[in-house]
From TrEMBL:
Name under which the protein is recorded: Chromo domain-containing protein
PROSITE patterns: CHROMO_2 (PS50013)
Domain of life: Eukaryota
Domain (Chromo): residue spans on this chain: 86-134
Subunit structure: Component of the NuA4 histone acetyltransferase complex.
Length: 152
């Protein structure tokens, strides 16, 4: 079955994905990413899933898929390995020293990098907002755990 010229905009839970069969370039955003044609757990059921959605819970499958191509992900999607553009997935950590830097996980790559906070804020403020929210939630959970331990 040949994928359509323009993949449908389908995303969602990827627990049912068994394998990635093929891909199509999605150059509609700030960075080149892929639509994956996937086989699901339903017999003879195939679907299109976006790389950014697959990255969340099928990271190892995505990395293994790209390693199967000469030139890897960069070669297949036309990404310049030294200049990008790349799409950040999430912030993993921060260094609050003199100039704040964030450790970034990138969609489609297994290596993280440390990026200046001001650069990230310029193009991806939503990631900083998500990071701050996660830290706040972790702090609240820690406070609850400490209160329970004191009461215990």
């Amino acid at each position: 079955m040949d994928p359509p010229d323009v993949p449908p905009t389908e995303s969602g839970c990827n627990d049912d994905v068994l394998s990635i069969l093929d891909h199509r370039l999605d150059a509609s955003g700030e960075a080149n990413v892929a639509w994956f044609h996937v086989q699901t757990t339903q017999p003879t059921t195939y679907a299109w899933r976006h790389e950014t959605d697959m990255w969340v819970d099928k990271k190892e499958m995505v990395l293994a898929y790209w390693k199967g191509f000469d030139g890897g992900r960069d070669g297949q999607l036309g990404v310049d390995p030294s200049n990008g553009p790349w799409l950040p997935a999430r912030i993993l950590n921060e260094r609050p020293k003199r100039k704040k830097r964030y450790q970034i996980e990138w969609v489609g790559y297994d290596e993280d990098t440390w990026e200046p906070a001001d650069t990230l804020a310029l193009h991806h403020q939503h990631l900083i907002d998500q990071w701050v929210q996660r830290l706040a939630e972790q702090g609240a959970l820690q406070q609850i755990a400490e209160e329970v331990a004191v009461q215990g």
